[in-house]
Design a protein that fits this description.
Length: about 325
């Protein structure tokens, strides 16, 4: 049984213009200790998927269908009280900006101790000992002194290390990292991603990494899900998807990486932009931006086609996989 099994997940947001669907029948699994990447542009539905897992979809948004099985429990059926036993304990989340995660008026030690005591019957001394151990694991120097620091006294990279340490406090089975290095410079990004990879391997923790950067996904994850306009358009083993992408959107994301361009020339880009939920086109939602579009792409939504474990939502999936181009 997978650690996490998301099936036919549908998330809706009722508005005055009608019901907008942010996720359409999304499927994916995460095994114990496995690292899964969820990739796509802003508006693809990546963060909505993460918030749905933790039952953090704000009203009037709602999970309108599907199931989220975690350790055998369907999280969509749990009460608010029952979810509190899962959220922050068995499943931890790392958000984009550590300054939005950490309380600016409490010391690091206070926040870590309170987190542990919220989920464990434990004394202050034992909680501080565990906090110091976790800070040491994320390579924070002099962890005993850092317990007395306030968030503003730490650099961005140090704050994100603290957030990772807090995520590990309760020894969760799964960590969801929502673009955890967006607010950091490039060199610190690499350090943080390397740290997260090492910690997940050491503790046997499952990881869902949400990002727009396929280069990061290729270094950290074992499988990847590519989202576009709230739908899975390609999924499979990361190495296979990155080395031999099939869906035109995935190809475009990879071609847009700086290393794929010609030195001195303009960077490659996918023309146009992600459609808003109020204006998703008929048929394949990527058809207005696709280099391989055909009339049938505008008529009906393609099904996910299985190419030996590599699943692609495109009417030309087999042609593109075999190298046939328009």
């Amino acid at each position: 049984m997978p650690l996490l099994d998301v099936r036919d997940l549908r998330v809706e947001f009722p508005t005055r213009q009608g019901v907008l669907t942010a996720l359409h029948d999304v499927d994916f699994t995460v095994d114990r200790g496995e690292r899964l990447g969820i990739v796509g542009e802003s508006g693809a539905g990546k963060s909505v998927a993460a918030f749905a897992i933790l039952n953090l979809i704000g009203r009037p948004g709602r999970i309108a269908g599907g199931s989220i099985l975690f350790e055998g429990q369907d999280l969509t059926r749990l009460s608010t009280h029952q979810m509190r036993r899962v959220r922050g304990d068995r499943i931890s989340m790392i958000f984009q900006d550590p300054m939005m995660t950490l309380n600016p008026v409490l010391t690091i030690g206070t926040q870590m101790v309170e987190t542990l005591k919220a989920h464990r019957r434990i004394g202050d001394a034992e909680a501080r000992r565990i906090a110091i151990t976790r800070l040491g694991e994320v390579k924070i120097p002099s962890p005993e002194k850092r317990l007395e620091s306030y968030p503003h006294e730490l650099s961005g990279g140090m704050r994100q290390r603290v957030v990772i340490a807090i995520a590990l406090l309760t020894e969760p089975a799964l960590i969801i990292a929502d673009e955890p290095t967006t607010a950091l410079d490039v060199t610190i990004q690499a350090e943080i991603m390397s740290l997260m990879l090492d910690l997940c391997k050491t503790h046997g923790v499952g990881l869902i990494l949400i990002t727009h950067d396929l280069a990061v996904v290729s270094q950290v994850t074992q499988r990847v899900v590519v989202l576009y306009a709230g739908r899975v358009v390609e999924t499979g083993e990361t190495a296979r998807v990155v080395q031999d992408p099939v869906h035109p959107y995935t190809r475009g994301l990879l071609a847009a990486l700086p290393g794929e361009g010609t030195p001195g020339a303009r960077l490659n880009q996918i023309r146009g932009s992600m459609p808003p939920l109020t204006a998703v086109p008929e048929g394949c939602p990527f058809n207005p931006r696709c280099d391989f579009v055909e009339d049938r792409c505008r008529d009906a939504l393609p099904a996910l086609e299985d190419l030996d474990g590599h699943r692609v939502r495109c009417v030309r999936a087999r042609d593109l996989a075999s190298g046939v181009a328009a």
